[in-house]
Amino acid sequence: MVEARPPKPTQSGALRLAGAGVELAGTVAVACLLGYWIDNRFGTSPWGIVILAAIGVVGGLYNLVRRSVHEMLRSPKPPRPGGGPEGPPAERGRTDV
What is the residue extent of each domain of the chain? Predict the structure, then answer.
């Protein structure tokens, strides 16, 4: 008989976005290293590292924003105080504030 495993705990949104930040730094670092190698190999200093660093930053930021928006749309909205869009029931319609 096969036993059902308990569900794995899911990561929090902050932890996922921290991972995206590390991924951004890794993307920039790899792009810079590749640009450094190209500059040394072909004698194009400093253009290889400059161009690939810019591509790494743009690509990493694109991925970070994409993941942030995905996480924002995925997370449930917290309930507002009072349950309605206008706020607590006692303050609806008050003009003496």
Answer: 18-73
